């Protein structure tokens, strides 16, 4: 049976075996020795010996643990990796990514996940690293918006208006399709928030339309 791994927070492989997690301890010419990840917290001295450190290997020997297996903890780590992948491949908001994951997760696994604030930071950090995002400026005058941030994931124009470099700078994000939706509906709704806005701006104002049973945000100012 091939070996099974999961990525650690630092991106390194951790071996999964019978509900236990191991990290690499020593690498020899003929085998790899893995150490239980609870060796510090629970003083577990268990080791697992494999023929290689990749999926093609097999287990040669394993020693007993001083604690029970924790499948929920392993699944929680897998979910964190899924969250990171989703943060890279989708433009879904941080809140929705976390909400979608938690909504499909059992209570024991949720208990092993980091707190929501930590998950949010993980998503934001993952996106910054992947996209090589620019450093946050200290004021609106210094804000330079890369071309990739002016487009949607379908390469449509998203930054519809930029008032220019000034202390009272205004940015409007929307698409032609969104504007057409507004044009075709009689009911518009506006909502302003001061919490979910970058520190260099005073307010985020959104314009929504009512369609069917949904209220959809279409313009971000």
UniProtKB/TrEMBL annotation:
Q: InterPro entries attached here?
A: Znf_FLYWCH (IPR007588)
A GO molecular function held by the record: zinc ion binding
| Keyword field | Metal-binding, Zinc, Zinc-finger
**Domain FLYWCH-type, first and last residues per copy:** 5-67
Gene3D superfamilies membership:
2.20.25.240
**From what superkingdom does this record's organism come?**
Eukaryota
Protein name stated in the entry: FLYWCH-type zinc finger-containing protein 1
Q: Which organism is it from?
A: Schizaphis graminum (Green bug aphid)
- Gene this chain is encoded by: Flywch1_3
């Amino acid at each position: 049976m091939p070996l099974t791994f999961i990525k650690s927070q630092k991106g390194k492989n951790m071996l999964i075996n019978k509900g236990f997690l191991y990290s690499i301890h020593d690498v020899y010419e003929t085998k790899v020795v893995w150490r239980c990840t609870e060796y510090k917290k629970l003083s577990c001295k268990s080791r697992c010996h494999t023929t290689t450190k990749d999926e093609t290997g097999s287990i040669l020997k394993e020693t007993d643990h001083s604690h029970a297996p924790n499948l929920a903890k392993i699944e929680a780590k897998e979910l964190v990796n899924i969250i990171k992948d989703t943060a890279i491949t989708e433009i879904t908001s941080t809140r929705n990514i976390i909400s979608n994951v938690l909504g499909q997760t059992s209570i024991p696994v949720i208990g092993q996940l980091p707190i929501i604030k930590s998950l949010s930071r993980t998503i934001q950090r993952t996106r910054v690293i992947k996209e090589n995002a620019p450093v946050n400026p200290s004021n609106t005058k210094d804000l330079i918006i890369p071309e990739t941030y002016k487009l949607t994931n379908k390469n449509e124009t998203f930054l519809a208006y930029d008032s220019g470099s000034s202390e009272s700078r205004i940015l409007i994000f929307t698409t032609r399709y969104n504007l057409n939706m507004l044009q075709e509906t009689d009911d518009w709704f506006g909502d302003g928030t001061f919490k979910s806005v970058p520190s260099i701006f005073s307010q985020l104002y959104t314009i929504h339309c009512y369609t069917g049973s949904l209220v959809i945000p279409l313009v971000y100012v």
